[in-house]
Amino acid sequence: AKQSGRCCYKFYQDSMNAKAAARLQLEQDLRRALKSDEIVPFYQPQICAQSGRIVGVEALVRWLPAKGGIIPPDEFIPIAEETGLINELGRLVLERGCYQAKQWFNEGNPVRMAINVSAHQFRQLDFTQVVADVLRQSGLAPELLELELTESVIMSDAEENIARLIELKALGVSLAVDDFGTGYSSLSYLKRFPIDILKIDRSFMCDVNSAPDDLAIVEAILALAESLKLGVIAEGIEYGSQIAILKNTKQLLLQGYLFSRPVAAEYISPLLNQDFNH
Ligand code: C2E
Ligand code: CA
Ligand code: CA
Ligand code: CA
């Protein structure tokens, strides 16, 4: 028994070492990838339900290793967060996104750029300054930049964060609550914080046609948004039937595979003249 115990322990230790080594390798690869052109934003259209036009895109980061393939963000964002590389990564996506939106604007297509902001980034003391600098350098109008923050980021230190959000609002950008409904249960922050948009989480939208509970939550979010005069973006739209449920909502934007997956910038341009309602 003693022997097998030692054996199990050793096995455990080896697998822990292997895990740590793999993680370290990933961190080194990511560090290098950030210096090359392997980390790029893809863009997913946000369509105005009323006009059928693309009015915005969300930047979703991808890792395109030189050897080929695509690594999705779920596989490297956590490492980036743990190691602090998320600041560099976040700034890269912010810069690329703003320059891209400015280019589309110059081509006659004002498209709002939505950028995901991680907790780590949001907590940096100079975050507002970074956003201001990138806006100035890219020449993008602040109205065309939207920052997506999750409820947990917003609520992590409510009092300090209010000040930060007011600072960001003063730049003229819009602020969206990402994954709305999945985090904190207290809704009072919506009244106190300078928020513009609620993004209904995909988890509520995916079964909205068959699950009465999800439908009830979505309807409650829509009513809340309407009475607080907030815009709404419904994520994860894959079927037309999901849209029917939302149809009476004002200022509604739709985002999901039904319209487009996140794609490289050059695939967005031809979509900008498309009417998705026809
Ligand atoms: P998120 O911000 O909630 O982004 C929405 C995710 O849902 C994206 O996954 C998108 O590709 C996916 N999605 C969109 N429409 C549909 C649909 O109709 N059906 C399904 N099944 N999925 C859909 P993605 O691109 O893999 O990103 C995952 C998460 O990684 C994001 O979730 C976000 O939290 C994080 N992320 C991505 N890019 C960045 C970034 O630049 N910075 C930071 N901090 N986080 C990022
Ligand atoms: Ca998002
Ligand atoms: Ca989301
Ligand atoms: Ca999410």
Automatic annotation (TrEMBL):
Ranges in coiled-coil conformation: none
Domain EAL, residue spans: 23-276
Name under which the protein is recorded: Putative signaling protein
Native species: Paraglaciecola mesophila
